[in-house]
Amino acid sequence: MSKLSLSMAEKIIDAALAKGAEIGLKPLTVAVLDAGGHLVALKRQDGSSILRPQIASGKAYGALAVGAGSRWLNANAETRPHFVQALNGAAGGGIIPVPGGVLIRDGEGGEIIGAVGITGDTSDNDEAAAVAGIAAIGKTADCG
Amino acid sequence: MSKLSLSMAEKIIDAALAKGAEIGLKPLTVAVLDAGGHLVALKRQDGSSILRPQIASGKAYGALAVGAGSRWLNANAETRPHFVQALNGAAGGGIIPVPGGVLIRDGEGGEIIGAVGITGDTSDNDEAAAVAGIAAIGKTADCG
Amino acid sequence: MSKLSLSMAEKIIDAALAKGAEIGLKPLTVAVLDAGGHLVALKRQDGSSILRPQIASGKAYGALAVGAGSRWLNANAETRPHFVQALNGAAGGGIIPVPGGVLIRDGEGGEIIGAVGITGDTSDNDEAAAVAGIAAIGKTADCG
Amino acid sequence: MSKLSLSMAEKIIDAALAKGAEIGLKPLTVAVLDAGGHLVALKRQDGSSILRPQIASGKAYGALAVGAGSRWLNANAETRPHFVQALNGAAGGGIIPVPGGVLIRDGEGGEIIGAVGITGDTSDNDEAAAVAGIAAIGKTADCG
């Protein structure tokens, strides 16, 4: 069984930010949470606005809460808004149900060892940066 | 008058999990609440995600809150979303208004002695497992 | 690295309740949380009062929050009350800082794989039951 | 006017962790907030417990909240506990009033450009690591 170390979290963040720079994204905030939903590392780039730490963490936390990337929450928010609103009530408002919260799995369909949440550009681009970050440590991204 | 004992709650949970295994459901979390809405027993299967205890409890609590299985709340969330949102405000966010929260009644139309909440698979399948759990103690399931 | 399974949590609870029966404790509520602070299993014995699930969980959660058994929190609450009050603010009121929240370690000084919280009798007796539960799965209890 | 950049925050964290390693501290969590009280970067070392991100952030936030290092809050918590409790009420529970939250000033008595919060060892040692981190970017530490 794998466990998400600080060293792994830093590699994920740096690779995600490198991806953002490469494809010309706006300033990003990247949060990496462990499997229990607790922050391991976070970086907010210069120019990334003040609530971004909570948004990035909330995407990652939402993914861990239900065991699916936050794209799944985004889809449910459209088909079953009452369900996603209620989840957020149960979570104390800590879930941001849009793409960009990606589970880190130990292989395809493998154990969840944490999640990455990114915000700052479009949700699709945020997610792409998260996927690049996870690839950098050789783990499998689950976008939901 | 019947009262929900720990022994009854354990039988419900074990039968619900057996049903889940039998019909091939994903890992489940099962919560059993007494008539006052307080947890008697809970089990979260390996691989069931981290917010599942609150989701399972929130389905069961919602059913007890309004005296109807949570399928009734789900229907109201679609026709009268403001009502279900307001209920959740009054409940401090503790209600999950989707199927899978089932009242335990002492006979058809009889007294409410508690509720079961299940989450992990589709809401319909979660509810089926709850019904099986309640049947195992010879009580009547009220899905709403 | 170990991970706390439902099967392990059930063994802990049943052994803790057996210990309570053996030494004549009042009705207990026992909660077992994983390393991330999320409930794996809970049982509330008949006659154990309605807030006991939150008390048992709050002892276990407090221990995990700071990485020390809740007896450590109890000592700090006496010497630095402002610190423990502030911790509870940061934790949304989820910490019960008295003995009876015991870390489950993988060997002496080893990794934390979860925590047990017990309430119902005196805090010292609650803790003794928790220690018995952890011994039943061959892990090391850390009372703080 | 100076502004706290991500690059500066990273240097502070890495220097604080290096100090911790040098003097043999337990695993630390280090948070760096900008002058507005918003997280810029955070690292939680392996083995640092799950509430540590909130504790580290809460020390730094408390310092910014009152314009004095959190050692000042700790002293007030002893002489005027009602004041510090009320501050925390106003702050939504986000203040941890013990040493280890250190203001980053632009020169002695200069402008506040952010704060560092550290937790994991004794409060005095946490503060020493924060001071080392601030020194590494040539700014002035204000411990309160």
Secondary-structure map with pairings?
4 copies of one chain form a homotetramer.
Chain A: H1 6-22, E1 29-34, E2 39-44, H2 52-66, H3 70-79, H4 81-90, E3 101-105, E4 112-119, H5 123-135, E5 140-142
Antiparallel strand pairs in A: 1-2, 1-4, 3-4, 3-5
Helix pairs in contact in A: 1-5, 2-3, 3-4
Protein name (chains A, B, C, D): Heme-binding protein
InterPro entries (chains A, B, C, D): GlcG_carb_metab_protein, PduO/GlcC-like, PduO/GlcC-like_sf
User: What is the correct CATH architecture of chain A?
Assistant: 2-Layer Sandwich
Total DSSP helices of chain A: 5
Give the number of domains of chain A: 1
State mean pLDDT of chain A (0 to 100 scale). 97
**Which strand order do you get reading across the main beta sheet of chain A?**
2-1-4-3-5
The general outline of chain A is: globular
List how many beta strands of chain A DSSP finds. 5
**Largest interface, by Cβ-Cβ below 8 angstroms: which chains and how many residues each?**
A-B, 20 and 22 residues
Poorly predicted residue ranges of chain A: none
Q: Please indicate the percent range of residues of chain A in DSSP E strands (runs of 2 or more).
A: 15-25%
CATH class of chain A, anyone? Alpha Beta
Quaternary: homotetramer
What structural class results from the helix and strand content of chain A? alpha+beta
Explain the overall architecture.
Chains A, B, C, D: This is Heme-binding protein. Four copies of one chain form a homotetramer. The first copy, chain A, has five helices and five strands. Chain A is of the alpha+beta class and 144 residues long. Chain A has one domain (6-139): Beta-Lactamase, CATH 3.30.450. A five-stranded antiparallel beta sheet of chain A has the order 2-1-4-3-5. In chain A, a hairpin with a 4-residue loop joins strand 1 and strand 2 (39-44). The two termini of chain A are 22 Å apart. Chains in contact: A-B, A-C, A-D, B-C, C-D. The A-B interface holds A 35-37, 64-67, 80-83, 85-92, 112 and B 47-51, 54-55, 58, 74, 77-78, 81, 84-85, 88, 92-98. Strand 2 (39-44) of chain B pairs antiparallel with strand 2 (39-44) of chain C, so a sheet runs across the interface.
